[in-house]
Every structure is written in structure tokens, then in C-alpha cells.
Amino acid sequence: MDGIFNKIVLVLLVLLVSCKKEQKIDAVKNNLIAEGKTLIKQNMNVLLDSLERHDMSLYNKEGGLKPLKIALLDSVGINERFSRETLKCITFKLEENNFSNFKSNYRLDLVKREVSESQVAFVSFLNLEIQKDHASIVVIKIYGISSEIDRYCFEKQRNKWVFARKKEISRG
């Protein structure tokens, strides 16, 4: 009887320890997601730079073209092509309030899948990595048959994510 009781106590202890470990992992993950949302909110204008080069209405003096619109994928995703260590990347859904600091003449819409309309720049955020006071995110901008893929790097200074550099991955 004592053997069965000891086994039950051991199983309960193992379950308790594993639950606490899962809670700790969830807390870390939620903290990283909150940091990721903060980084995007603070740096939305940096992440969506250079879109005006795709706005054909600026070059059409007759005014026949609509201004450029931005279609942003509604979640931060992961693509193994841009990172060897995808386990360090975080994913989450974007919300309208993540763009309250975005200042632009262009309309920004969240979309669930890629959009291929004229005068629409499709943008997606991938492979957001945050390690202590350093972060990076891959931004893909597609307009028609041209695209830009860049990695933006940030450093945290005085509780604010500050743009450090931009690395071009590909352009075409």
C-alpha cells in the first residue's frame, strides 16, 4: 500500500513541476509578444519606409491613378528561409492599435492573405527575434512584380526600441 501511495505522490509532484514550467514558458512568451508589439508600434514608420517609390500616382501628372494603399499581413510569421534559428522567432496577430504611431499619406489595411491588386503594396513581417536589448525583423514589400526584402535591426535604449540598421536581403 505504501508503494502505491509513494507512486501517486511522485506522479502528482511531476505534474505540478511540469505545470509550473509551462506557466513560466507562457509568461516569457507573452512578454516577448508584448515587446514585439511595442517594437512594431514604436517603429512602424521605419518598417514601412521607401514605399513612395512604388506609388505611380506621384509620377502620373494627369491624375488618372489612385494613390498607393498598403496591405499588411495581419500576423507576424516565421519563414525558415530568413533564419536558421526559427525557434527564437515569435509569432502573433497584429491589431489596429499597433499602428497608432503610423504617420503616412498612404492608407494601411490589415489583410489575411497576400493581395495582388494594382496600386497596392503588400507587406509582411517575418522572423521577429528579440534577445535582451537587441531585436531584428524581416520585412517583405511586394508591389506588382517587384519586391524588397530587408532585415531591420533595433536596440533597446531607455525602454524604447531604437532603429539601428537595415540590411538588404534581396531586391528585384
Q: What does this protein structure show overall?
A:
This protein is an alpha+beta fold and 172 residues long. The protein has helices spanning 2-42, 44-47, and strands at residues 69-73, 75-76, 89-90, 92-93, 107-111, 120-131, 134-143, 146-157, 160-171. Strands 1, 3, 5, 6, 7, 8 and 9 form a seven-stranded mixed β-sheet that branches. The chain has a two-stranded antiparallel sheet with strand order 2-4. The longest helix has 41 residues, at 2-42. The chain is elongated, with a radius of gyration of 22 Å.
What's the helix and strand layout?
Layout: H1 2-42, H2 44-47, E1 69-73, E2 75-76, E3 89-90, E4 92-93, E5 107-111, E6 120-131, E7 134-143, E8 146-157, E9 160-171
Parallel strand pairs: 1-5, 1-6
Antiparallel strand pairs: 2-4, 3-6, 6-7, 7-8, 8-9
- Judged by helices, strands and strand pairing, the structural class is alpha+beta
- The span between the termini is 73 Å
- SS strand fraction: 35-45%
Order of helices and strands, N to C?
Answer: HHEEEEEEEEE
Runs with pLDDT <50, length 5+?
none
Helix-residue proportion: 25-40%
Report the biggest beta sheet as strand number plus sense, adding barrel if it closes.
Answer: 7 strands, mixed
Q: Gyration radius, to the nearest Å?
A: 22 Å
State the helix count.
2
Described by the principal axes of the CA atoms, the overall outline is elongated
Could you report the average pLDDT, rounded to the nearest whole number?
A: 80
The total beta strand count reads 9
Q: How would you name the oligomeric state of the polypeptide chains in this document?
A: single chain
